[in-house]
Design goal:
Elements (H helix, E strand, L loop, with lengths): L1 E8 L5 E7 L4 E5 L10 H9 L3 E5 L15 H13 L5 E6 L1 H11 L4 E7 L15 H10 L3 H13 L3 H7 L3 H6 L6 H8 L8 H5 L5 E6 L4 H13 L3 E6 L8 H12 L2
Parallel strand pairs: 3-4, 3-5, 5-6, 6-7, 7-8
Antiparallel strand pairs: 1-2, 2-4
Helix pairs in contact: 1-11, 2-3, 3-8, 4-5, 4-8
Length: about 260
């Protein structure tokens, strides 16, 4: 497969766009907040070179996928099911950031997931930024008011913890306007995480029986790595591994062979 965009249909009729690279057992990449399928191209190609069918897709409300309302996390799990079905009927999942929370939920829900890896799911641990208690509720209010730019700004400041002055500077750059159309979806990530304070869901993780790899980066703050470590401790067949990387990411050359080794188990 050359990575050309293809489409499948979720259970509620929503169109989900995806790209597939390579041949072999499928690994589906589940994006974090504001990410689209194109953001995974370098990693997907590297994983494909390891002998896998690497599948990236636009989560609902992003890129070339639809966004049927009302939203529910269960609909996003059905989206993953549709992508898996279109790519062989069973797959490994790899979730980045808040996409890890969705990948965890999809696996726990019993989808045909053969293996699971997640990179720094931002569950809240001591030392990390603490969103307001009504973080998700306020995002819902902005969503209902159809104000995606305000949602994106609130996510950056209250959710990620970036200074307002820094976000004001970001708003002057060209990439900001490209993000605004998917600003509504930051609510979806908040709901996937489960609460405004998003504690590690030990009961949910404890129900995941497939092999699980929880990854952290040397370039990330300690609280993000701690969330990955506690997640690994909660799941019955999980490992915690720290990779050489930058903030909340690792180079494809470092990450791809680690993912291949894990999902080949």
């Amino acid at each position: 497969m050359n990575g050309a965009t293809q489409k499948t249909t979720s259970a509620d009729g929503t169109t989900i766009a995806y790209r597939a690279f390579g041949d072999g057992a499928a690994i589906v990449f589940v994006s974090g907040a504001t990410q689209r399928k194109e953001d995974w191209a370098e990693l997907a190609e590297s994983v494909a070179d390891e002998g896998f069918r690497a599948v990236t897709y636009d989560r609902r409300g992003r890129g070339e996928s639809g966004d049927t309302t009302p939203y529910a996390v269960e609909r996003e799990i059905e989206d993953i099911a549709a992508v898996i079905e279109a790519n062989g009927g069973a797959a490994g999942l790899h979730g980045q950031s808040s996409g890890g929370a969705l990948a965890n939920r999809a696996t726990a829900a019993g989808l045909p997931v053969t293996s699971l890896s997640v990179f720094e799911t931002p569950y809240r641990t001591p030392g990390g930024p603490t969103p307001p208690a009504d973080y998700v509720e306020h995002l819902q209010e902005l969503y209902d008011a159809d104000d995606p730019e305000a949602m994106l700004e609130y996510f950056m400041v209250a959710g990620v913890g970036q200074p307002q002055a820094q976000v004001d500077q970001m708003k002057q750059l060209p990439f900001w306007n490209a993000l605004v159309p998917i600003g509504r979806t930051v609510l979806y990530d908040g709901l996937c995480l489960g609460s405004s304070r998003a504690p590690v869901p030990t009961d949910l993780l404890g129900s995941i029986t497939v092999p699980m790899l929880c990854l952290g980066s040397t370039g990330s703050p300690a609280w993000l790595r701690a969330g990955a470590e506690v997640s690994a401790q909660a799941a019955p067949d999980a490992r915690f591994v720290v990779l050489e990387g930058d903030f909340h990411t690792a180079p494809a050359s470092v990450l791809a062979p680690v993912l291949a080794e894990h999902h080949r188990r």
